[in-house]
Amino acid sequence: MGVTIRQIAEAAGVSRGTVDRALNNRGRIKPEVADRIRQIAEEMGYKPNQLGRALSMSKNNIKIGVILQAAETPFMQCVLEGIERAKDEVDSLGGTVLLCKIPHISGRDTIDAMEHMRSEGVSAIAMVPIEEEEIKAHINLFVEEYHIPIVTFNSDMEDTKRLCFVGQNAFQCGRAAAGLMGELVGGCGKVAVISGYSSNPSLSNRVLGFGSELKIKYPEIELVGPEYCFEDNHLAGQATEKILKENPDLKGIYMTSHGEEGVCRMLAKYGRAGTVKMIANDFMGKNYELMREGSIHFLIGQDAQIQGYEPVMILFRLLFNGEQPKGELQYTEIFIRNEYTIPENL
C-alpha cells in the first residue's frame, strides 16, 4: 500500500491541507515548512501521482453537508471556526462542504436542511440534532434508505442509526457542576438550574447529571427548576428574577447554556451577585469578565473547535478511503476554571 497524505501529515505534525499545498506549490505556506514536508514525503516513499488520483476521486464523489443549530450563540461561533478549518482542508483535497447555519433551535428547519442537503447530492451529513421523534426518524431514514451516513456533534442521538458522536459528555459535565456546587454552598440549601432548550439533548443531559449527582452526594440540597431561557440573555434575566422572588434564600445557580450575562445582570440588580454562587459553561463571550467580577465562580469548558472540525473529517476519511471512526462516542475533554486560572491574555 502506498504512502498516504494523512501519514505524511501525521509525521510532519501538520494538516493534510498543508501537505497538499506543500506538495503542489499552492502557496500560503512557509517555505521552510514546505521543504520539511517534501523531505518527509520523499523519505516515506510518497509517489506524487497518488495525490492526483485522490483529488480526482474526492472532487467527483465527496460532498459533505453540515447543519449547525443555534449558530449565533458564542459557543457555536467557536464550533463554526472548526467547521471552517475542516472545510478549507476538504476543499484543498478536492471535496466540498456545504454548510447550513440555523440561528435558533428548530426541528422543522433541521429536517428542511437535511432534505436540501440530499437534493444537493451530499454523500454524508454532520449535524447538531434536537430531541424530537421526527428528527430521529429522519436520521434513520437517511442512513437506512438513502445510505447517507450521519455524524452528530455537540448534541447526540444515541437511539438512532447515526455513525458516531463528537462532543462533550454532557451528563458527566452536569455531575462535575454538581460536585463544585455542593462544595460552594456547603452541601445544603436551595440551588436553581437555568437551561436553554428542553429539546437540546446536550443541555438536558447536563441537567440530568447535575440533579442525579446532587441527589446522591448532597441530599440536603433542594433543586429549583429547571427554568428555560432559550439561550437568550433577556429571558435568562427574567428566569433569574422569577427564581429570586420565589426563593429569597437561594444559594446557587447552575447555568447550563448561553444566557450568563442576563443571569448576572439580574443577580446584580437584586444585590445577590457573588453571594449566590454561580457555575456556568464555556470559556467565551463575557464569561471571563463576569468571573473576574465575582459573579461566576466556576466555568466548565469543552473543546468547541474540535466539535466542528472532527465530524467533517471523520466523514471525509470514511468517504475517501473507507476509514471507520475510532469509536461511537468521541468525547471531548472537560475543563474547569475559576478566577485564578483565567489565561492572562484574556
Automatic annotation (TrEMBL):
HTH lacI-type domain span: 3-57
Pfam families: LacI (PF00356), Peripla_BP_4 (PF13407)
Subcellular location: Cell envelope
Highest taxon in the source lineage: Bacteria
Entry-linked SUPFAM superfamilies: lambda repressor-like DNA-binding domains (SSF47413), Periplasmic binding protein-like I (SSF53822)
Annotated InterPro entries: Bact_Solute-Bind_Prot2, HTH_LacI, Lambda_DNA-bd_dom_sf, Peripla_BP_I, SBP_2_dom
Family: Belongs to the bacterial solute-binding protein 2 family.
Protein name: HTH lacI-type domain-containing protein
The species this protein was found in: Blautia parvula
